[in-house]
Every structure is written in C-alpha cells, then in structure tokens.
Amino acid sequence: MKKISIKIGLLFFCLIFMMEVCLFFLLHQKIAHSRIAEELSALVTRGNNHRDVLETYYNDETIHHIALMEGKSDTEVVITNNQGEIIISSTDINNQMHQLIKTEKKEMSRNGKIIENNWQDKPYIAAVTPFETDIDNGFVYMFKDTRQVKELMQQLNRHFLIAGIATAIVTAFIILILSRIIARPLIKMKEATKKLSKGNFSIQLENSSNDELGELADSIQSLANELNHLKTERNEFLASISHELRTPLTYIKGYADVAKKDHISMTDRVNYLNIITEEVTKLTTLVTELMELAQLDNNTFTIQKQWFPICDSLKKISTIILPSFQESGITLRMICPENYQILADPIRFEQILINLLDNARKYSPRGTITTVKVKKENADIKISIQDEGKGIPSKDLPFIFERFYRIDKSRSRELGGTGLGLSIVKELVDAHHWKIEIASEINKGSTITITAR
C-alpha cells in the first residue's frame, strides 16, 4: 500500500535534492569568490595605506613602524626600492616571496595590483603598490599566508555542509508528508479496485477534489456502481429466467401426468393437451426471445438498412395485427399524412412496431383506442404509439425497458407476456441509432415515441 507513497516521495526528494545541490553549489562558489575578492581587496587597500604613509612621512622610523605593525598582524609587508633591493620586511623572506618580488611590474597602477591570487595552490596571496617620495621610490609588497584563507574556506564549507544536511532532512520530512497526502487517495482507489476484482462492487470512494485524481475516483465509483447494477440485474435476470422456465415446465409436466391417466375422458384429455400446447408455445416464445436478445448483445445480428415508404409499412403492420385488436375490442388508428421515406431495416422495423402495438393491446381495456401517428420534425421522423390503457407508475418508468421487468407480474403472466418484448424493442432502436421515449399517466394511458434520424 505504501509503495506508491515511497516512489512519489523518492522522486520528489531526488528532484528537489538535485535542485538544492545545484543552488548550494552556486551559492557556495559565489560566497567563496566574494570572500577571496574581499581578502585580495583588503590586501591591496592595506598596501595603499602604507604607500600613503610612506609618501607623507618617509623616514627610517616610519618604515620600521610599518614593518613592526605588520609583524603583529596576519599579513606580511616587504618594502623595496626601484631596483628591487629590500629596504625592510616584517618577516623572513622565503623563495616564494623572492619569486613574487622579482615579478616584472610593467604599467604599474598607482592603486596597486594583485600579483598572486591562487590561494588553492600557492603559499601566499600577494599585492604590490608603488610609492614615490623625494628621497626614494619603490614598492610595498603585501603577503598573506593562504593557510588562513583555506581555513576560512573550510569553515565556510562546514557551514554549507551543516546547512545542506539540515535542508535535506527538512525537505525529506516535508516530502514524506506531502507524498502520503498525495498517495492516500491513490491507495484508497487501489484498495477499491482490488475489491472490484474480487466481486465486491459495493464500494464508496470519498472525493473532494476537482483535479485528475478526483476524476479518476469518480470514474472508479461510476464503474463500481455500474458493475453493482449489472450484478443485481444479472441475478434478477437469472432468477426471472428460472421462474419463467419453471412455470410452463411445471404445467407441462403436471398436465402430461394427468393426461396419461386412463380414467379421464377424451374431452378432458384433449383439454389438457391443449394447455400443454399453449405452455409449449409460451416456452418457445420465451426461448426465441432470449436467443434474439443474446444475438443483440453479441452483435451477431445484422441491420440491413434501406429507404422505404413508412406509410406502406404501417399498412402492412396494421393488416397483420388488426385481427387481434378487433378480437380485444380495441380500435387501431394509423395517422400517416404523407408517405415519408425512412432509412431502416424493414423486418426489424415491423418487429419494433408489432411488439409495441401488441404490448399496448394487452394492457388496454375494451372500447379504447390505440393510435399510431407519424410526423416529421426538421430532419427527424417521430413515430408515436398512444394507448388508453391503465398507464405506468412514474416510479416504474426508468426500468420499463429492462429485461423481465414487470409492473404487475400476475397480470403480465395472465396475458402471456415474457417481460422481454420492450427490451428487444430498446435493443433494436439502439441498433438503428434512434431514440425511444415513454410518457404515461395512471388510468389515462401511455405514449411511446420513436425518433428516427
């Protein structure tokens, strides 16, 4: 569970640590160069001060005073004449000093110059300043042991090391907290998906963010809700199939056993055999519709679209279904003012209309009217089937196209319905990329509208 937070933490730490190292290095170099520049500038300034004193009070006492003063400080002074002869020095002159004193000094500025600044490899850093008096001219050499500069740099390095370690620890602590905060929703989503993989679809993901993680959480929650719905629907579907198959099979077995008895009359036997035939017909219809739904689900059926006159097709459908309406005492009206052309599969179109009309007939009382009306709105053709039946409660409308869904199970079974007709209609309408809507009022009837594009 914590692997993701560790990975995120390490990634952020590496990135930030690299940035800090670069920034610390640049800062260190800047400060180091500034400190060396300050030391060199101080060395030149000190030589310039001695020059000013010598030019104002040039005598042996002043020269000795300058040498004595430098002997008590962390710098050394060497005063020479123009010929390079040493007048006085505050310390014993070694080979490195001799080499620097012998350095050629062309175009010497009055404000002096640095003659050695390599503090890392050389024993001294040095500066020289010329002086001019009425008595003598010469140079003031200032030396500083680079060990002091190196100690200063080592001290600076220690400070930077301590600051770097402290910064790394604080950064690691902050990143650890932030990575856990970032990873927490991911860990919860991982646990949720693990539950989904095990078949537990009743999960609830809390989401309070509007970023990509929030969208991912919403997607997982939607998937869980959909899978939970499908699981419930599947269980109900299997239960409904079992029930629908068991009922006719029970009738068939029961009446077959009775029909086999010797003492019953031929009239009763024929009656029982007729009941068995009816139940076999229902069972055949159920199996046929189930096979058709399976084909629709697997997209193994084909939609052969073609243009044909819709009014001519409605007349053919009316001829097929009108006898059953007359037998039920229901008037069937077809309103198709113009012979509009429609792009559809003629066989599937007839199947859709016949299913809807048969459903309207079953749930409408005698003496009512069922109306099929065709009209055109812009580029769409709207086909509405309106009945004057008992209507559908508003709470049932969202589920009316689900398989085996019945408002009144006993009434549906009495009428011979399987609960699959409207499901097949919905699948066929979707296959045509059309739209189907239903509106209903209790005891006033229902209107199903198909919008063909």
UniProtKB/TrEMBL annotation:
Organism phylogeny: Bacteria, Bacillati, Bacillota, Bacilli, Bacillales
Residue ranges of coiled coil: 213-240
Catalytic activity: ATP + protein L-histidine = ADP + protein N-phospho-L-histidine
InterPro entries attached to this UniProt entry: HAMP_dom (IPR003660), HATPase_C_sf (IPR036890), HATPase_dom (IPR003594), His_kinase_dom (IPR005467), HisK_dim/P_dom (IPR003661), HisK_dim/P_sf (IPR036097), HssS/ArlS-like (IPR050398), Sig_transdc_His_kin-like_C (IPR004358)
TM spans (from-to): 6-27, 160-183
Keyword entries, A-Z: ATP-binding, Cell membrane, Coiled coil, Kinase, Membrane, Nucleotide-binding, Phosphoprotein, Transferase, Transmembrane, Transmembrane helix, Two-component regulatory system
Domain HAMP as annotated: residue spans: 180-232
Record EC number: 2.7.13.3
Gene Ontology molecular function, alphabetical: kinase activity
One protein family per Pfam: HATPase_c
Gene designation per UniProt: lcoS
Annotated ranges, domain Histidine kinase: 240-453
Record's subcellular location: Cell membrane
Organism: Lederbergia ruris
Signal peptide location: none
Zinc keyword on record: no
Main location: membrane
Protein name, as recorded: histidine kinase
Keyword Protein transport attributed: no
UniProt cross-references to CDD domains, sorted A to Z: HAMP (cd06225), HATPase (cd00075), HisKA (cd00082)
Topology with respect to the bilayer: Multi-pass membrane protein
